[in-house]
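Q: Structure tokens for this one, please.
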Amino acid sequence: MKILCSLAIMAVLLGCSDFDNFYREKKTGTSALYKTETVVAKVGSEEVTADELSKALESLSVKQRFSYLSSPERLNDFLESYINQMLLYKEAQRKGFESREDIRENLEKYKRQLLIQSIAQDVTNKKFDEDEIKEYYRENRENFEQVKLSQIFIKADPNGKPSTDEARAKAELITKRLRSGERFEDLVKQFSDDPKSKKKGGDLGYVSRGRLPIEVESEIFNLKEGETSDPIETQNGFHIIKVTEGAKIPPLEQARAKVQLDLRKKTFNDYIKNLRESAGVEIFQDKLKESITNE
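A: Here is the predicted structure, written as tokens:
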């Protein structure tokens, strides 16, 4: 029955030139010129218009949207899924799911999350003028300092193989070989457990302050160009890091995106701080600790 229904829908859609036109014009970005009231499908007496389908597509991630717009067949798959959701929604309404207590609670949670997300976006969507950007960059130049790194990563599994001790011993042996003059790139090919950087001779590219675990960053930014770290232990294993280009501060144009991101974070943090001060927030640490202990 499911197959027959799917075939019936596909037959209607594939035989509809309006649907093909919608695909072509949406794919080329000219759908705004297209008649958005054009009906691309019917579910009983209810019509699905090109405008409705377009809005549904826009709600997807960029990757998903391009996937569905890659061919008329993939767009047809999206329409079928959309129709299925329409049917399920109507059936849930018919069976009175909206009155169920668990559904009402989840709807209230979703409403709360949506409102929080919306106000956060509203606060952080502020546009900063050039003077604000330049001033923040000038006053926080050290935050944009970056180094170019390569790594040899030795993974560890505390509960399996290789164990943390085995991984540490292996990393220390690699470090000794580096100190004795062996080429970093050769040891990357032989030992590194990170397939992505391994393909590039261990290259990690440029890394800015604040992007690495604190235990890694504190050591890396003290190394000079060409120097290699001792094995640095993290949750997943051991990193042996080589600084291929020493620390430097990029010009504003290269750092602009991070400056704007930092300004948005600062704007949001300042907004939250003002809300907390206005509300008079108090946290009773002793009682919090007691509640955890009592459990």
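A few notes: The first strand starts at residue 39 and ends at 43. Residues 2-94 form one domain.
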